[in-house]
Amino acid sequence: MLDVRHVSLHFGGVRALSDLSFSVPEGGICALIGPNGAGKTTLFNVVSRVYTPTEGSVTFDGADLLARPRHQVMRMGIARTFQNLALWPTMTVRENVMVGAHCRSRATMLASALRLGTRTEERRLRAEADEVLERLGIAEHAGHLAADLPFGTLKRVELARALMARPRLLLLDEPAGGLTHSEVDALADLIQDVAESDGLTVLLVEHHMGMIMRLSRQVVVLDSGTKIAEGTPADVRRDERVVAAYLGVAA
């Protein structure tokens, strides 16, 4: 589903990614781990076309992703969440989630601004958003402002917004960051259920090793922009390079 080949990205003299290669099979859950500054979010930004790599190729379901403009990425079937919440605090939860379907909207910008023939589509998207919120267990917050909700709930709102795009590849950037242990467990259950029921391919950046061990079938480990290990979660935990660079203790 996703194939990253010999990707390098330099910002002046800073090497953010160096000759990075890995593949994620369709329906797989792949974790991307490493210390802070290893290049994980940078790779997400390459896949979502925020950055263009200095070298290398990225293909999505056989299509050259780097040849597509940024605004087409979601239309291709790629959605993401963010390490730092990227929600509109003065919009309701439902409105934030509806934004995730903009790539599927048939209305033009002018028609939307003048509200010409958009009421039917708005009703449809509201119903879809409510279905997603119900599925993620936060339907009771649909009419609440995002600013009024706790952090753990907002993490689910971001996931709901990404699912509104009906993605085939879901990029999750530290979804468990800032959550309690019980919230992490519940979120892991949710991600697993959604991925299996929707047949999603997932690329997961996460520091919570319990979630990684539970969800992922494949782990890619980065250090200073370079891949130092790849394999199953159990294999990676025993890798001496991973222990030295990231885990810090032997498994």
UniProtKB/TrEMBL annotation:
UniProt keyword annotations, A-Z: ATP-binding, Nucleotide-binding, Transport
CDD domains: ABC_Mj1267_LivG_branched (cd03219)
GO molecular function: ATP binding; ATP hydrolysis activity
Pfam families: ABC_tran (PF00005), BCA_ABC_TP_C (PF12399)
Domain ABC transporter: residue ranges: 2-249
InterPro entries to which the protein is assigned, alphabetical: AAA+_ATPase, ABC_AA/LPS_Transport, ABC_transporter-like_ATP-bd, BCA_ABC_TP_C, P-loop_NTPase
Gene Ontology cellular component annotations, sorted alphabetically: plasma membrane
PANTHER family according to UniProt: CONSERVED COMPONENT OF ABC TRANSPORTER FOR NATURAL AMINO ACIDS, CONSERVED COMPONENT OF ABC TRANSPORTER FOR NATURAL AMINO ACIDS-RELATED
Name under which the protein is recorded: ATP-binding cassette domain-containing protein
